[in-house]
Write a structure and sequence with these properties.
The complex is a heterotrimer.
Chain A (H helix, E strand, L loop, with lengths): L1 H19 L4 H21 L10 H17 L4 H5 L11 H30 L4 H19 L11 E2 L10 H28 L1 H11 L1 H6 L4 H27 L1 E2 L1 H5 L2 H15 L6 H19 L4 H15 L3 H9 L10 H8 L3
Antiparallel strand pairs in A: 1-2
Chain B lengths: L1 H19 L7 E2 L2 E8 L6 H20 L3 E3 L2 E11 L4 H13 L6 E2 L4 H13 L4 E3 L15 E3 L9 H10 L6 E7 L2 H17 L2 E8 L7 H10 L3 E5 L1 H15 L5 E4 L7 H5 L7 E4 L8 E2 L3 E2 H12 L5 H20 L4 H9 L2 E4 L2 E4 L12 E8 L2 E8 L19
Parallel strand pairs in B: 2-4, 2-5, 5-6, 6-7, 8-9, 8-10, 10-11, 11-12
Antiparallel strand pairs in B: 1-2, 3-4, 12-17, 13-14, 15-16, 17-18
Chain C lengths: L3 H4 L2 H31 L6 H17 L7 H19 L9 H23 L12 E4 L4 E4 H23 L1 H11 L1 H6 L4 H26 L8 H14 L4 H22 L4 H22 L6
Antiparallel strand pairs in C: 1-2
Helix pairs in contact in C: 2-6, 2-9, 2-10, 2-11, 3-4, 3-5, 3-9, 3-10, 4-9, 6-7, 6-9, 7-9, 10-11, 10-12, 11-12
Classes of the chains: A mainly alpha, B alpha/beta, C mainly alpha.
């Protein structure tokens, strides 16, 4: 059970990472969030063949709901976000953690209901219509949130600060790091289990040929919506956590960042290899490293570098890292290649 | 074993690349005081991010040339680490964290725009890093009890309040009708609050209250409404794009208002781009070169203007001036604290009371600068050659306000 | 909801006229998008950036003393070659692949182009002055900037020229043949690679014209391209491919919708309402088709 050993090794590494690299806690937390985003995108994009740009809606919903719950439970939300607000409200530690706990639960549950609600209409679209429709949803959500007064409208909303008296910023960094890490592990394990059941098979069947799947009697809409519900659950929690870590929620840039995270989700999964379980994880980690590297070394040209990377990945390596490995080492993936037979088919005799 | 070795490679390269990105700065390296700044080099605020950076750099150069900062008997030079926040608030927050945690910076300079300052402030406050910011004017920055935030500029709500008072004064003391359009961001919405306060104070009525999107292209709808309802004052605030779009469409649609009050006129190079069309627009400014403030680094405003233009090829908008002032404040604080201890520097900053070429600086407990009033200037043109002339406060007015604005048909 | 527009009915005229003029310009950009989509099966996310680039060309004409309206001739010529260059560098690899790949690849190109433009052209928001004046109707209550009227007319003229070119010229027929069936066209001797390059170049030229018109009507900044991309999407999707009059009508419809939503819902929701409209139209279409047990292809 080599893979189990590797898995435990990595988990241990992840657990001690904040002490190995204390200055990078926020970076690593964000990296785990990106992994969750990539994994959940893959449920639609890789396993089901429905390229979505709309998962970011759940991200922003989770973010706003979590923050609103954290604040709204103890203080009047309208006054917290009021622009000229003269009052300052401070959470004590009990309120903070209660609020966070409940906030994350709300951030997990409500997006699931939203997925069910809009799923029937949106998931009926196919191919690039689905992609563009979800893109429209993502951007519309951000613009819309920018107009709602009670959550701060265009001025954004600050999430509750870490309560005074409980350790310093290091503790806060560790706290959020571990929650993000646990979220990532949970989503990974859940998806690993889910793919091994009929659910995974149905998703792949939908990807391969949806009409045939329906003709065979599978209620594809039920499974499509279930998949979206799973994504909504994890992405919502991720959003809630991100909002707390960043500290300031801006509707289009932080909550519904369609142009950045929304597209990155897709890229990370493709970079790592969409349709595989580990692909999105590798893709997310690699992407994050690349991006931070570009921002350090190519300042002023970082987007040029990123754009070039995107073009190269998409054009030359659409199968991603996992796909590349699969080609090179098919035995590792359980495929048996009959070399003699394969070659004989292409040799001109 | 191939998978294991591949994973080893992955882990090793991760560690290596992470360590490469760890330059290991600290607050003072050798004879350099390291300041950190995240500014908008790209994205929608790139214009003003550049003005900010140029302001910072010019001040650093001047202060270093003139002997630097004297702490503990030794002379130190300023140095700034810049990152690009891409006009994105979550990026700004991450970069602030990076500057503090990874680069070890202990003193920060502010970004451009209230929104980005609002994103960074929680980070610097939690880490107890003194930040002197020069471009975040939103009042909400000063209501959160921040102790490590110091703003050299006047707060956003003060920007155009004076304009309303002027309008009422010219109306014989009677309340006026106000039409306004504001962008959906922290700064502009705060300016709006100032107008609302002024309206309440003077008993004036708000007839149109429009919000403009960040990707503003077309405000024809608002202007058509203005034409239909004929207010006494039109207030528009939407950063550079807002100012340029407003003047373009006001001149195209021949909208006649007795008073047009705007922000970001000089940052958008309004007078240069629109020429005589921008005439009579009343603009809020944090600073103007004709004001008589002085300091020993830049002389007075005219001199700063001359030297900045020589160095960067364009006249400095107030964003550049206030950014330069931030460095002057830091130098003064370091010298008074005579130490690099963050708490001591923070306390020294809180006690600042000085005059810079940009204006008087004295921080209230909330971090706001309460010693510097806003300035209003009007664009006055001779053909297509336009100049900004200060009209308020009267102490520095170089010309009388032209009111009401002549109709388009008479121009 | 702000009902001012109904209290002053003259505003309805203003909004409609503004919308139609604007919409024709959008329809031009959408035509370019539809051309690429139909012929090469590519969705070009960098369309907006091409438009802005075209606008900058006109702006540079303006600051060198030439009237920016000449940009409608200079810009498409330069942009055509740029488009062909882009095709030969990157796009040709993406043509035969899944459309989603083209979305991502052109997205990469768009963010690359944005930052390049920022570095090369500077980050100022700029405008070009056309000094065309204004037309007044209805006793000065309805104002139409002549720049907008000029834009609409030029867009129409350009569209007519393009349609004529497509129908009657050799290259035009080759393009249409390739769109119908690329393999058959190849067999019959059409150099499909050249056709693709020319199509992409024509699209870039269309963006160039549109950009020049936008320079004199609105503002230019390296980062304002995306809304134009999205609008042209919307128009193509609503009109359906290959439906040229549909593109023009959808364009005008979108323009009018935007103007009216400005008045009714507030300008801050303008972009949101455009996207929501897109979502609603697609979902509505899907339900209509699902009754026949079909789906949007």
């Amino acid at each position: 059970m080599r893979s189990k050993k590797i898995f435990f090794l990595l988990v241990i590494l992840g657990l001690i990472a904040p002490f190995l690299f204390p200055a990078f806690k926020l970076q690593m937390s964000i990296m785990w969030i990106l992994v969750v985003l990539a994994l959940t995108w893959d449920v639609q994009g890789g396993q089901m063949g429905y390229n979505t740009f709309g998962n970011i809606v759940f991200f922003g919903l989770g973010m706003y709901l979590c923050a609103a719950t954290q604040i709204g439970l103890f203080f009047p939300l309208g006054e917290w976000t009021a622009a000229g607000g003269e009052k300052t409200f401070v959470h004590n530690s009990e309120q903070y953690f209660q609020g966070l706990f409940l906030g994350l639960i709300v951030a997990a549950i409500v997006p699931v209901f939203v997925a069910v609600f809009i799923g029937y209409g949106i998931l009926g679209l196919r191919g690039h219509y689905f992609a563009i429709c979800t893109l429209g949803l993502g951007i519309a959500a951000g613009e819309f949130a920018g107009g709602i007064e009670i959550i701060g409208a265009g001025q954004g909303m600050t999430s509750p600060p870490w309560p005074k008296g409980i350790g310093n910023t290091e503790l806060r960094g560790e706290f959020f790091y571990y929650i993000c890490f646990v979220l990532m592990i949970c989503s990974f394990l859940f998806l690993r289990w889910a793919y091994s059941t009929r659910f995974g098979l149905v998703l792949n069947a939908i990807r391969d040929n949806e009409d045939k799947a329906e003709a065979m009697g599978i209620n594809t809409m039920k499974f499509k919506i279930s998949g979206w519900m799973v994504s909504a659950f994890f992405v919502g929690i991720a959003g809630g956590l991100m909002g707390n870590m960043i500290g300031y929620i801006e509707p289009v840039e932080t909550a519904f960042p369609g142009r950045t995270f929304g597209v990155f989700m897709v890229l990370m999964a493709i970079l790592g290899g969409k349709g595989t379980l580990i692909g999105p994880i590798i893709g997310a980690i690699a992407f994050h490293l690349f991006k931070e590297g570009f921002w350090t070394f190519f300042l002023g040209w970082q987007y040029v570098a990123l754009g070039a990377l995107i073009v190269i990945v998409v054009v030359f390596f659409p199968e991603g890292i996992m796909g590349y490995l699969r080609e090179k080492f098919p035995e590792r993936f359980g495929e048996v290649v009959d070399e003699k037979n394969r070659k004989s088919q292409v040799e001109l005799s | 074993m191939k998978i294991i070795s591949k994973l080893n490679v992955l882990i090793l390269s991760t560690i290596i690349s992470l360590s490469i990105t760890l330059p290991g700065f600290a607050k003072v390296v050798g004879d350099k005081i390291i300041l950190g700044a995240a500014v908008s080099l790209t994205g929608k605020y790139s214009t003003n991010g550049e003005h900010t950076k140029n302001g910072y750099n010019m001040a650093v150069k001047r202060i270093n040339e003139m002997g630097g900062v004297k702490v503990g008997g030794k002379s130190y030079k300023f140095d700034i680490i810049y990152y690009d926040d891409e006009s994105d608030s979550s990026r700004a927050a991450q970069l602030a964290e990076r500057l503090i945690k990874q680069d070890g910076v202990e003193f920060m300079l502010g970004p451009y725009s209230s929104g980005l300052t609002k994103a960074i402030a929680p980070v610097t406050e939690e880490n107890q890093i003194p930040m002197v910011e020069a471009n975040g004017a939103s009042r909400s920055l000063f209501t959160k009890g921040y102790k490590y935030l110091f703003a050299v500029l006047s707060a956003a709500n003060q920007y155009l309040e004076v304009a309303i008072d002027l309008a009422v004064e010219k109306n014989g003391g009677k309340p006026v009708n106000i039409a306004m359009a504001f962008e959906q961001d922290a700064f502009s919405q705060d300016v709006r609050l100032g107008i609302l306060d002024a309206a309440k104070r003077t008993g004036s009525k708000i007839t149109i209250d429009d919000k403009l999107p960040k990707e503003l292209n077309d405000m024809a709808a608002t202007l058509a409404k203005v034409k239909a309802t004929k207010p006494d004052v039109l207030v528009v605030s939407g950063h550079s794009k807002g100012a340029l779009t407003a003047i373009r469409q006001i001149s195209e649609m021949k909208v006649d208002v007795p008073m047009l009050a705007m922000t970001h006129c000089d940052a958008s190079k309004l007078a240069k781009q629109h020429g005589s069309k921008s005439q009579y627009a009343l603009c809020a400014a944090q600073w103007h070169k004709s004001l008589t403030y002085k300091d020993k680094f830049f002389g007075d405003g005219m001199q700063f203007d001359k030297e900045f233009t020589a160095m960067y090829g364009y006249a400095p908008p107030y964003q550049a001036a206030e950014s330069a002032a931030a460095l002057v404040v830091f130098k003064d604080a370091f010298e008074r604290a005579n130490s690099f201890d963050r708490t001591k520097v923070r306390d020294a900053l809180a006690k600042t009371d000085m005059q810079t070429f940009y204006g008087n600086i004295k921080f209230a407990e909330t971090g706001q600068n309460t010693a510097k009033p806003m300035v209003l200037f009007q664009v006055i043109c001779d053909g297509d050659n336009c100049e900004n002339k200060v009209v308020a406060p009267t102490k520095w007015a170089s010309t009388e306000l032209v009111h009401p604005i002549p109709k388009w048909s008479d121009r | 909801m702000d009902l001012l527009i109904f209290q002053n009915p003259i505003l309805i005229v203003q909004a409609s006229l503004d919308g139609i003029l604007l919409g024709i310009l959008f329809a031009l950009i959408a035509y370019g998008m539809a051309l690429q989509w139909g012929v090469m099966n590519i969705i070009n996310i960098a369309q907006g950036e091409l438009v802005i680039l075209g606008g900058y060309i006109a702006y540079f004409l303006y600051i060198s003393g030439v009237h920016p309206a000449f940009g409608i001739i200079v810009s498409p010529v330069i942009m055509y070659f740029l488009g062909v260059g882009m095709y030969k560098a990157v796009i040709y690899r993406v043509v035969d692949r899944d459309m989603f790949i083209s979305i991502l690849a052109t997205f990469g190109i768009s963010i690359l182009a944005q930052q390049l433009m920022n570095s090369v052209f500077g980050s100022d928001v700029v405008v070009a002055q056309s000094n065309f004046g204004t037309t007044f109707l209805f006793n000065y209550m309805v104002t139409l900037p002549n720049a907008k009227i000029f834009s609409a007319c030029i867009s129409l003229i350009f569209a007519v020229i393009l349609v004529g070119y497509m129908r009657y010229s050799k290259l035009g027929r080759a393009i249409r043949a390739t769109a119908q069936n690329a393999r058959a066209a190849k067999i019959l001797g059409v150099d499909t690679d050249k056709v693709y390059a020319a199509t992409f170049g024509i699209n870039a030229a269309i963006c160039g014209v549109a950009g020049a018109l936008i320079a004199i009507t609105f503002t230019l900044h390296p980062y304002v391209g995306l809304p134009y991309t999205v609008r042209s999407f919307m128009i193509v999707i609503v009109a359906g491919l290959g439906n040229l009059p549909g593109v023009a009508l959808s364009g005008m419809g979108l323009g009018v919708f935007e103007e009216f939503s400005d008045y009714l819902f507030g300008t801050e929701f303008r972009i949101a309402s455009v996207f929501l409209l897109l979502v609603l139209i697609l979902v509505f279409r899907r339900f209509k088709l699902s009754r026949k047990r079909e789906y949007l292809k």
